[in-house]
């Protein structure tokens, strides 16, 4: 019995939080791990929060009927049909997900950041990229592509052209990141303080950085960082965070076991 299954007997799970799966057809083991997570864990919770970069990229909702994208949408819809509330927050890879995909998958789209109250806890949720303010090149790019006019112009292009552009952006990003100081690709402490002030909370859950941890900050504030998923490697990684009915937050590793 995993720690998660034991907790299910002791305390019902109110919410699960996951991000940075980077799902794509080229990663079949990661895909299967996510589908297994939905079937074995997500169906037992009340709410599932997908906090960005669920897909490796998203070229537009007109690509939602592609076989792989339809597979993921159907799997999410199956969970939603069993009474689980599904929530989706855009990441830096899949911010073009729109209402058509949300309807197909049974999702409610959330703004970033978003505040929830559950199990007696008030939590701030974010993807995390907006707080990486030391990476000036990325922040300028983010400001551009999040503009509605830019997105409207981009989505008016043929799907094949959009995918080619995205592939070029991904390649340039990978090349640029190799020469960047790792520190500037992490969140900025001042940006995190501002987010706590903006949301009026003392607990934050986010992803994006691929640096899973629990940070205990001044004033008793807690910053939980979600892991990224990668099962198509020799040493798989992944995991999630759960909130149980007693108000406790638990970090889970790639096997679903609780991290002390």
Question: Could you characterize the architecture of this molecule?
Answer:
The chain has one domain: Metallo-dependent phosphatases (Purple Acid Phosphatase, chain A, domain 2). It is 35% helix and 20% strand. It has helices at residues 3-10, 28-40, 67-81, 99-105, 136-145, 148-155, 159-178, 189-199, and strands at 13-18, 47-50, 85-89, 107-110, 114-118, 121-125, 203-206, 213-216, 222-225, 240-244, 249-252, 258-259. The strands form two sheets. It has a seven-stranded mixed sheet with strand order 4-3-2-1-10-11-12. A five-stranded mixed sheet has the order 5-6-7-9-8, with helices on one face. Its EC number is 3.6.1.54. Belongs to the LpxH family. Mn(2+) 2 binds at residues 53, 92, 127, 208. It is a peripheral membrane protein.
State mean pLDDT (0 to 100 scale). Answer: 94
Q: What kind of assembly state do the chains in view correspond to?
A: single chain
Uncertain spans: none
The number of helical runs is: 8
**Helix percent band:** 25-40%
Key terms:
260 residues; alpha/beta; single chain; Purple Acid Phosphatase, chain A, domain 2; 12 strands; 7-stranded mixed sheet
Note the topology:
Layout: H1 3-10, E1 13-18, H2 28-40, E2 47-50, H3 67-81, E3 85-89, H4 99-105, E4 107-110, E5 114-118, E6 121-125, H5 136-145, H6 148-155, H7 159-178, H8 189-199, E7 203-206, E8 213-216, E9 222-225, E10 240-244, E11 249-252, E12 258-259
Helix pairs in contact: 3-4
Task: Give a short summary of the structure.
The protein has one domain: Purple Acid Phosphatase, chain A, domain 2, CATH 3.60.21.
């Amino acid at each position: 019995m995993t720690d998660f299954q034991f907790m299910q007997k002791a305390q019902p799970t109110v919410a699960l939080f996951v991000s940075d799966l980077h799902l794509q057809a080229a990663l079949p083991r990661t895909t299967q791990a996510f589908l297994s997570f939905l079937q074995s864990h997500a169906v037992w919770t009340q709410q599932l929060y997908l906090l960005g970069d669920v897909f490796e990229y998203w070229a537009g909702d007109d690509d939602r009927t592609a076989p792989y994208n339809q597979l993921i949408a159907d799997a999410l819809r199956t969970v939603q049909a069993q009474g689980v509330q599904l929530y989706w927050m855009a990441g830096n890879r899949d911010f073009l997900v729109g209402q058509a995909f949300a309807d197909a998958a049974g999702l409610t789209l959330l703004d970033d950041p978003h505040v929830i109250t559950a199990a007696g806890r008030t939590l701030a949720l974010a993807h995390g990229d907006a707080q990486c303010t030391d990476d000036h090149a990325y922040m300028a790019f983010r400001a551009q592509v999040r503009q509605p006019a830019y997105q409207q112009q981009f989505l008016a292009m043929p799907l094949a052209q959009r995918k080619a552009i995205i592939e070029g952006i991904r390649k340039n990003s990978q090349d640029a990141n190799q020469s960047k100081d790792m520190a500037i690709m992490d969140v900025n402490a001042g940006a995190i303080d501002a987010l706590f002030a903006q949301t009026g909370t003392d607990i934050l859950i986010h992803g994006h950085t691929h640096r899973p941890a629990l940070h205990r900050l001044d004033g008793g504030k807690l910053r939980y960082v979600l892991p990224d998923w990668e099962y198509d490697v020799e040493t798989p990684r992944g995991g999630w965070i759960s909130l149980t009915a007693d108000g406790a937050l638990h970090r889970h590793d790639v096997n679903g076991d609780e991290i002390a």
